[in-house]
Structures are given as structure tokens and as C-alpha cells.
Amino acid sequence: MSDRHFDELATRFAEKIYGGAKGAIRLAVLQADLAEALPDRPLRVLDVGAGLGHMSLWLAQRGHQITLAEPAAPMLEGARQRFAEAGQSATFIQAPWQELLGQLQEPFDLVLCHAVLEWLAEPAAILPVLHQLTAKNGWLSLAFYNKDALIYRNLLKGHFRKLRKEHFAGEKQSLTPQQPVDPRELATQLAAYWQVEGRSGVRVFHDYMPQQFQAKAELIDLLEMELAHRRHPSFEGLGRYLHWICRPR
């Protein structure tokens, strides 16, 4: 297994992830969490695996200084275009995470690492690098594809054979991640570098709704309910993604 990038899937990725309620909910939860956690002053921000730059653009519009690092050229070009259309400036680096320490001289106040771990051959290997890239008093915003939610969804569908085989990886051309993250394993791996200060679930109920109910629901109501229940002790762990706000040890 090797790290997977999205050169050939950039357009499909954009349409599938951010073209509907799933993407809107994801952005709403991440933005709400960061708005609550971050101080009201300009920060130096690094977005590792920035994709099309949705989160980075939101932060740029709030006055922060942004550096986007993305290994896939089509994705990075899409981010450039998004920033240009919004009249925002940023630094764009086409590089995988393994090359960032050699290219960046100073740590950042905030490091974003969203939907990256689950596409890596060795997810734990990036954690010490993220630690070095983050200032001592900084923040890490870590969002990852939740293995527990994938198991639960397969239970609801009756896919018991898949569960017995522990076959969780997506197919080669699928947008289901190749290595869903076990939150307990990640918490153990993080402990040497980070203190997790905030936890939220992203799409704690939307993805489990029958399609006919999804189709009837208004987006404004979905957003309200997802935000209201993202930290509920019974529902947070069911999020399709989990978002953890971490501080360096």
C-alpha cells in the first residue's frame, strides 16, 4: 500500500464531496469548531493535504495567513482558482507531507490535516511531522474517516460477510478511503505528541438517514441538527468523520 493522491479524481472528488449536503455539513462542523477554539487574531496557517482549499479559503477570509500544501496538481490548481475568484492570496506548495519539513522554515500557529490520514500507507508516520510543523502554543485541526462509523453503517446494511473479513478499504477507484482510522488506536498514537482538547462528530446522523428522508430534509435544518448533536456523548462517535482539536505537549 502507498499514499494515495487524487490527480485523476479531482473533479469527481469536488462534485461528490462538496456538491451537496455532505460537504456542507462537513464544512459547517469544522468551521464551528475552529471558530470556537481559535483566538481572535491573525494566525499563520498550514493546510496539509489541502485539496481544493475550501477550509483554507474560509480561514483566509477571516484574516489568517494561509499556506496550502497539496501533492496532486489538479487539486492544487483548483485551490488556486478558488482563491483567485475570491480575491484572496495564499502560498501554494505542491508537495506530499514527507517533503514539508525540508521546505518550511518556521512552525505554524494552526495546522490543518483534514481527510488525509485515511489515505496514507502509514498514518501514524505523519504525526511527529505535524508536531514539528506546529508552534508550541499552536493548534492541530485533525479530521479523519471514522472506522467505527463504517462498521456501524455496514451493520445497518447487513454486510456481515464484509465485517467478518474485516474488509474496510475502498476499491481502487472508489472514494471510500483505503485505511479507515480506528479512533482508539489514533488516540494512543497521538498521546506522545498531542493533547486532544476538543472532539466533534461530522455527520453524526445524516449518512444513516434513509434516502427518502434525506431528500425531504432542508439543508438549514440538517446543519442546525448536526451542529447541535456533534458533541453529544452518544452520537459524537458515530460521525462519518471525527474532528479533533489538539494542542502540542
Run of helices and strands:
HHEHEHEHEHEHHHEHHE
Low-confidence stretches: none
Strand order of the largest sheet: 3-2-1-4-5-7-6
How many helical stretches? 11
Number of DSSP-assigned strands:
7
Work out the radius of gyration.
17 Å
Mean pLDDT: 93
SS-derived structural category: alpha/beta
In words, what does this structure look like?
The chain has 249 residues and is an alpha/beta fold. It has eleven helices and seven strands. The chain has helices at residues 10-18, 21-37, 54-61, 73-86, 100-103, 126-133, 147-157, 160-164, 183-190, 211-216, 219-229, and strands at residues 44-48, 65-69, 91-93, 108-114, 134-145, 194-202, 241-248. A seven-stranded mixed β-sheet has the order 3-2-1-4-5-7-6, sandwiched between helices. Strand 4 (108-114), helix 6 and strand 5 (134-145) form a beta-alpha-beta unit. Helix 2 (21-37) packs across helix 11. The chain starts with 9 loop residues before the first helix and ends with a strand.
